[in-house]
Inverse folding.
């Protein structure tokens, strides 16, 4: 047999025997057989080596060493592997009942938010985000709420006592998502069609339909010739898409400093109307503040309460249920 065939046969047989060994005794037997110094397969190989021509010896000797090292490394690795504690299949009682795995659910408010984004996306509105911690400029001034306006009253807002903006003004938790209208208009040229969804904070007295933290969806559409009729169409279509064709929505004249004219949007709930949002045509003062020309562009904006829509869809009668983390309640959606 030539030395190359002998080397190959040795290597194949050794690796096979190493992989087949299932316990320390077996692997020790393999070590003696393939790497033993006194007798065994390594010795046989050495005798093959003795028969090669003297000029070939350095190359063949190198190959011999490489194969020996390779087999030795594979053997060491297998010894290590066999030492690892292994749980035998027989130790697992397959007749025991399995552990019940409870699959979590997406919170109903998050489900609502996802659906709102989806519906408004189909209407051509893209989604933007804005900060929950705001400065006075975005929460009030740019929304046409001057310094002496009662909406700025510390008792009506959550100011962060120790924090200030870089320019020194106070910082507060935003009281409405309308702040994002300003942030978007400051950075973007018309046309604009966006919605922004997030948390807002007000020290309102908590009851079945009010919380001090809740979610709003702000909408803003700015263009050459945006009308109040379009605003009413978008809001009616939105309410019908989310709540079904039989939902009854009404628009009631109202006042917001940042829209003119302004409306409040209600939906029929039982025998009563429940307010679901505020809306209107963006006030020319607001357009000017962000650098737009009110003679050239117009727009509408709206802010809807997410919780109240979700309550209507699922007939939830108390807003507080959303925040209690009662798994029995949350599991139902
Ligand atoms: C506003 O917040 C205006 N920013 C809406 C707006 C946007 C007007 C753009 C014009 C243009 P309002 O305070 O009415 O409006 O709140 C809007 C909606 O948020 C309400 O209709 C209601 O659905 C919800 N909401 C208000 N206060 C609470 C509260 N304490 N708990 C739960 N939901 C509330």
């Amino acid at each position: 047999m030539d030395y190359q065939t002998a080397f190959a046969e040795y290597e194949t047989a050794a690796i096979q025997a190493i992989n087949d060994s299932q316990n320390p005794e077996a692997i020790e037997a393999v070590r003696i057989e393939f790497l033993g110094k006194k007798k065994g397969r390594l010795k046989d190989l050495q005798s093959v080596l003795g028969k090669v021509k003297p000029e070939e010896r350095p190359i063949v000797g190198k190959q011999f060493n490489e194969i020996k090292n390779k087999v030795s490394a594979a053997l060491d690795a297998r010894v290590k592997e066999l030492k690892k504690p292994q749980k035998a299949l027989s130790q697992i009682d397959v007749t025991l009942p399995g552990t019940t795995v409870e699959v979590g659910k997406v919170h109903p408010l998050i489900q609502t938010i996802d659906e709102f984004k989806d519906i408004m996306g189909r209407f051509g509105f893209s989604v933007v985000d804005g900060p929950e911690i705001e400065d006075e400029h975005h929460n009030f001034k740019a929304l046409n709420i001057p310094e002496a306006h009662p909406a700025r009253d510390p008792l009506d807002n959550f100011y962060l006592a120790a924090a200030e903006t870089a320019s020194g003004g106070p910082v507060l938790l935003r009281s409405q998502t309308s702040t994002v209208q300003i942030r978007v208009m400051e950075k973007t040229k018309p046309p604009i069609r966006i919605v922004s969804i997030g948390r807002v904070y007000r020290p309102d007295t908590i009851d079945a339909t009010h919380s001090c933290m809740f979610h709003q969806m702000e909408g803003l559409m700015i263009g050459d010739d945006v009308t109040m009729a379009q605003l009413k169409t978008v809001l009616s279509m939105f309410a019908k898409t989310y709540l079904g064709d039989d939902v009854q929505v009404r628009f009631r004249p109202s006042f917001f400093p940042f829209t003119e004219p302004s409306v409040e949007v209600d939906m029929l709930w039982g025998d009563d109307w429940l307010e679901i949002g505020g809306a209107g045509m963006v006030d020319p003062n607001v357009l000017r503040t962000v650098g737009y020309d009110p003679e050239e562009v117009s727009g509408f904006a709206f802010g809807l309460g997410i919780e109240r829509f979700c309550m209507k869809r699922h007939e939830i009668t108390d807003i507080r249920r959303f925040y209690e983390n009662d798994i029995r309640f949350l599991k139902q959606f």
